[in-house]
Amino acid sequence: MIDWLLALAQTLLFISMAPFLLGWIKRVKCHAQNRAAPSLWQPYRDLVKLFRKHTVLAERASWIFRATPYIVFGAIVLAASVVPLVALDLPNAAIADVIVLVAFFSLARCFTALAAMDIGTAFGGMGSSRDMMIGALAEPALLMAVFTMAMSASTTNLTEAVTYTLNSGLVLRPSFIFAMLGLMMVAVAETGRVPVDNPATHLELTMVHEAMILEYSGRHLALIEWADQIQLMIYMVLIANIFFPWGIATQLTANDLALSLVAITAKLMLLGVLLVIWETVMAKMRLFRVPQFLGFAFLLSLLGMLTHVILETGG
Amino acid sequence: MLRILNKIQRIGIVTERLPIIEEPALEEIGAQLKAKLGQLFNGSLAIREVDAGSCNGCELEIHALNNPYYGIERYGVHFVASPRHADMLLVTGPVSRHMQAALSHSFFTLILLLWVVT
């Protein structure tokens, strides 16, 4: 029983910390742009404001448009609940493995694209087609990176995979390095960051994800934005905890949990700084170069799997 | 890559600090304004700007608000791409005939309209 409560607490912590992570990234980014940053709690203020506002629906909105924010938010929260954040031996990890996690992302993406086309605005359809193109290219690369990890650990369950990395100690695995680089590139594409998409753009012609949610307002918009923040955090936690799991609590004692919380916060903050440096030195690329970018991510993941087969098995 | 990071490091934060105002009359007005706006503006404001035939002077100034020097974003005010995301409609210019339809359209897609500033 206490396990399930802890699992619930972990999920709640996950979804409540996601806006804070975005606030941190924004703060570091503002410093990289030599400007004074808004408060770290700004994403919370924006969300609260949006939740308090009324929602306006377009006249031709069907049930898909109305249901999408809830489906997207639900899918992403379920995905967040199976990712080990602070503790390993929680019962919810057995519910779903990493392939289901990818499927949750696809479900959210699919419904966002449908909702964007539902209204019939030009930008919505354009955003959907672009996002589906990116998704179709990013998901194979993501799955390939995940399979590399799964082949090493002989499991697709996230908790068991993290335990495996933790138990095997500090071993240099070329396959993991390739898979990590592949996963990072996919994460950049899937969460709509520079160079694939720019989350702060106002130019409709260059929008990808933003173009799909132009018609949303009020609490619908709040749910979708919150889901995006959680998705960004899921990717960062995946990278942090699969490849650098040290510090995560293996026993459910208060001491371990506190240490784990400090460790994951430090890891996420560091990853946030890395993301900002990456975004600062890169320019947004043309849409037609995105397939090359994601092709490279796929290649890296494939190389990871090959090096695993060639170098790390047998013997 | 290192050059741009070095440059960022060297320049530091350029945002202008708020001047310290020592005029009691201004402070009083400020307090009144704060009491009135506080209910509507709670640290987060999304603005949709519509150019209805202005000379672009306003746009230059509005754009300058977003730059690192003035940095309006630090107060939680930002410009958005869709009137549905906005709390405030900011109209510049005398509303030319060609922009009339577009302006009224974006006016009606706004929700819980706080202000229209022209």
Q: How many structural domains in the coordinates of chain A?
A: 1
Q: What spatial form of chain A do the alpha-carbon principal axes imply? A: globular
Radius of gyration of chain A: 19 Å
Question: What's the tally of helices of chain A?
Answer: 11
According to CATH, the fold-level topology of the domain at 41-118 in chain B is Rossmann fold
> What is the H/E string of chain B?
HHEHEEHE
Strand content of chain A: under 5%
Please tell me the CATH architecture of the domain at 41-118 in chain B by its name.
Answer: 3-Layer(aba) Sandwich
The parts of chain A where pLDDT drops under 50 for at least 5 residues are: none
**Global mean pLDDT of chain A:** 91
Estimated helix fraction of chain B: 25-40%
Radius of gyration of chain B: 18 Å
Largest sheet of chain A: none
Largest interface: which pair?
A: A-B, 34 and 31 residues
Describe the structure.
- The complex is a heterodimer of chains A (315) and B (118).
- Chain A is mainly α.
- Chain A has one domain.
- The longest helix of chain A is centred in the middle third of the chain and has 32 residues, at 122-153.
- Chain A has helices at residues 2-32, 42-52, 63-81, 98-119, 122-153, 158-167, 174-190, 209-212, 218-243, 254-281, 290-312.
- The mean pLDDT of chain A is 91.
- Chain B is α/β, with parallel strands linked by helices and 118 residues long.
- Chain B has a domain at 41-118: 3-Layer(aba) Sandwich (Rossmann fold), CATH 3.40.50.12280.
- Chain B has four helices and four strands, in the order ααβαββαβ.
- Chain B has helices spanning 2-11, 24-38, 57-65, 97-109, and strands spanning 45-51, 77-79, 88-92, 115-117.
- Chain B is extended, with a radius of gyration of 18 Å.
- Classes of the chains: A mainly alpha (315), B alpha/beta (118).
- Chain A binds chain B through residues 30-39, 42, 45-46, 48-49, 53-56, 201-204, 207, 210, 214-218, 221, 277, 280-281, and chain B through 1, 4-5, 8, 11-15, 42-44, 46, 67-69, 71, 73-76, 79-82, 84-85, 87, 109, 111-112.
